[in-house]
Amino acid sequence: MAKPTPAEEAAALRRRLRRLVAAVAAGSADAEAFDEAADALAALREAEVGPRKDHGAVVGGGGKASSEAAVPAQFLCPISSEIMRDPVVLASGQTYDRRFIQEWLNAGNRTCPQTQQVLSNTILIPNHLVRSMISQWCQENGITLPPVENQEDDLLTNNERKTFSKLFDRIASSSNLSEQREAIKDLRLLTKCNSSLRAAIGEKPDSISQMISVVSDPELEHNEEVVEDMVTSILNLSIHESNKKIIGEDPLAIPFLIRALQSGTMEARSNAAAAIFSLSALNSNKAKIGELGAMKPLVDLLENGSMIAKKDAASAIFNLCMLHDNKSRATKSGVIDVTLKAISEDSLVDESLAILALLSSDHETVEEIGETGGVSTMLQIIKEDQCKRNKENAAAVLFSICMYDRRKLREVAEDEKLSGSLALLAQNGTSRARRKAAGILEKLKRIMIHTHHSC
C-alpha cells in the first residue's frame, strides 16, 4: 500500500480532531479525549506543509510567532471565522465563540446559525476540551489571544447612571400620564440598545417594583402599549445575568409577567414568555415561577399564540420543566395534548418533542402520553422524520412508555414487525437514540420469549 502523502495525513488528522470535538458536543468524551486531541494536534503540526487557507484561517503571531500558522478549522467560530476565545456548545451540538453566539441569541434568534435547527433551549455549555486544545495550539505557535471578555463587565458610566436616574424619576414621580408613557417607552428602547445601562438596576433594585406599581395604576394598566413596553423592558433587563436574581426576587415582577401572559397583546404575551424563559435560568426562579401559576398561561400561549409566541412559550416551558415539580404542573395544564396536537399538525415538532422527552421521566406524564395516542405519534416520527434529534427524542419518549406500560409493547411490536424502524434506529441513530431503541427491542424480545414459554 502506498504511503499517504503529507496532505492526506493532515486531512486524516483533521477528521480525527473533528470527531473529538463532536464527541464533546454529544457529551460522550471521556478523560482520555484531551490526551488524544493533544497527540492529534502534535501530529497535525508535523504533517502541515505550510499555511493552507482551504483548511483554516492564517493567523500571524501578534509579533511573537516566528512564522504564520494555519489555524485548524474546528478552532474557528462559524460566525466570526476567528479563533474562539470562549468556545461554548449550543443545544444543537455546534460550538461557537460565546460572545458571537450570545449576540445572535440576544437578537431574538432561536435557531442554530449553522444547522438552522430550532433550539430546545439557549443554554450555552463551556466546551473545555476545545478551549484547552486552542490554548495549547496558540501557545505552541506563539500566538497570544486577547483575554476572555466578562459579560458582567459592563461598566456603568456616570452619564448612564444619570440617564437611568432621570428616566426612573420620569416614570415613578411624574404626575403627567403622557410623560410616564413616554418614559416607559424610552426605558424599553434604552435597555434594548445599551447593555451597560441594564446594570443600573443593580444599584437600585427596588426600582423594578416602583415602576411596575406605576404601570399597575388603574389609569395605565389598561393601556396595552404601556404594558407591552414594561414587559419588554423587563425582558431586556433580564438579559444581564446579575439582574435575573434581582427581578426574580422582586415581589411584583413575576406576577406582572404572568398577568401579561394572560391578558396582554400578542407581543406582550410573547415577550413575557421570553422574559420568563430568561429568568428561569436560575433554579430559584424556576420554582417561584411555577408556584405563582405561570404554566397554564404558557401552555395556552403554546397552543394559541403566533408562531414567535409559541416558540417563546415552548422555550419557557422546557426550561421550567427542568425542575421536577414543574413537570406535574405542565401536565396538569394540558401540555401533553397541546404538544401531541402540534406534532400531528407538523407545527413546532422539534420543540414539542423536546418537551415530551423531558417530561417522560415522570410516571404520571408518561401514562398520559401513552393514553392520548403518543405511541403511534412517536413511531411515526421515528419512521418518517429526517431530523436525528427528533428521532432521538421520540425514542426516549417511546422507551419510557414501554417501561411504565407493558400494554403498549404489543402496539410497538406489531409496528416493528412491519417497519423494522427501531432496529434501523438502533444501528444508525444518535448514541442516545441507539440506546433507547436497543432498550425497547430488548423488552420486546423478553416479552416474546415469555409468551413462547407460556404457550
TrEMBL record:
Reaction catalysed by this enzyme: S-ubiquitinyl-[E2 ubiquitin-conjugating enzyme]-L-cysteine + [acceptor protein]-L-lysine = [E2 ubiquitin-conjugating enzyme]-L-cysteine + N(6)-ubiquitinyl-[acceptor protein]-L-lysine
UniProt key word Transmembrane: no
Residue stretches making up the U-box domain: 70-144
EC number: 2.3.2.27
GO molecular function annotations of the record: ubiquitin protein ligase activity
Pathway: Protein modification; protein ubiquitination
Keyword terms, alphabetized: Repeat, Transferase, Ubl conjugation pathway
Cross-referenced SMART domains: Ubox
Domain of life of the source: Eukaryota
Pfam family, one: U-box
Keyword Repeat attached: yes
GO biological process, one term: protein ubiquitination
CDD domains: RING-Ubox_PUB (cd16664)
Protein name per the record: RING-type E3 ubiquitin transferase
Lineage of producing organism: Eukaryota, Viridiplantae, Streptophyta, Embryophyta, Tracheophyta
